Amino acid sequence: MTTEGEGAAAQNARRPTLDDIDRSILEVVANDGRATVADIASRAGIAASTAHARLRRLISEGTITGFHAAIDQRDLGLQLQALVGVTLRPGARQENIVAFANAIRGLPDVIQIFFVGGADDFIVHVAVPDSSALRTFVVQHLSGQPSVASTRTSIVFDYHRNRVASSFQ
């Protein structure tokens, strides 16, 4: 069994080499995830059959990890977003990291989870109806975990996603 860190290292070792056509396709779908194969082909200057084959390969190799709709959480009744920094207790570190990530990533309030370096071990991005629900989430799902040493919560007042970070040049 590989650890999460070893899995990431193995994945990086197997990364495909991207050529200019791949980069053109990625630029199109990064800017418009709803682009049709015909649109991708036209914008990348290639045949539709080539665009389709390349797009399928980029998906199967894991370069394209998914297509997502950006939804305003407020329309779902989730009026409050927060970033919660989580620090794990020392000891059995690798097992705690994997166990915590697995326990948290499936919770419905969790939008994103980041395993980070620095003062925190994880940053958990959540969307909840109100401050009472945030408190319940932090106490029950984060602080209540035996591996968690501390949490630090920051309320999100506003959020804007610019675009996918990339260098297609």
Description:
- This protein has six helices and four strands; from the N terminus they run ααααβαββαβ.
- With 169 residues, the protein is of the alpha+beta class.
- A four-stranded antiparallel beta sheet has the order 2-3-1-4, with helices on one face.
- A hairpin with a 6-residue loop joins strand 2 and strand 3.
- Helix 2 packs across helix 3 and helix 3 crosses helix 4.
- The protein is elongated, with a radius of gyration of 20 Å.
Topology:
Elements: H1 4-13, H2 20-31, H3 37-44, H4 48-60, E1 80-88, H5 93-105, E2 110-115, E3 122-128, H6 131-143, E4 148-156
Antiparallel strand pairs: 1-3, 1-4, 2-3
Question: Summary?
Answer:
The protein is of the alpha+beta class and about 170 residues long. The chain has helices at about 5-15, 20-30, 35-45, 50-60, 95-105, 130-145; strands at about 80-90, 110-115, 120-130, 150-155. β2 (about 110-115) and β3 form a beta hairpin.
Low-confidence stretches: 1-7
Strand order of the largest sheet: 2-3-1-4
- CA radius of gyration is 20 Å
The description of the largest β-sheet is: 4 strands, antiparallel
Spell the H/E element sequence.
Answer: HHHHEHEEHE
Kindly name the structural category.
Answer: alpha+beta
Strand content: 15-25%
Overall spatial form: elongated
The residue fraction in helices comes out at: 40-55%
Quote the average pLDDT: 87
What's the tally of helices?
Answer: 6
By DSSP, the count of extended strands is: 4
Our measurement of the CA-to-CA distance between the termini, rounded to an integer number of angstroms, reads 38 Å
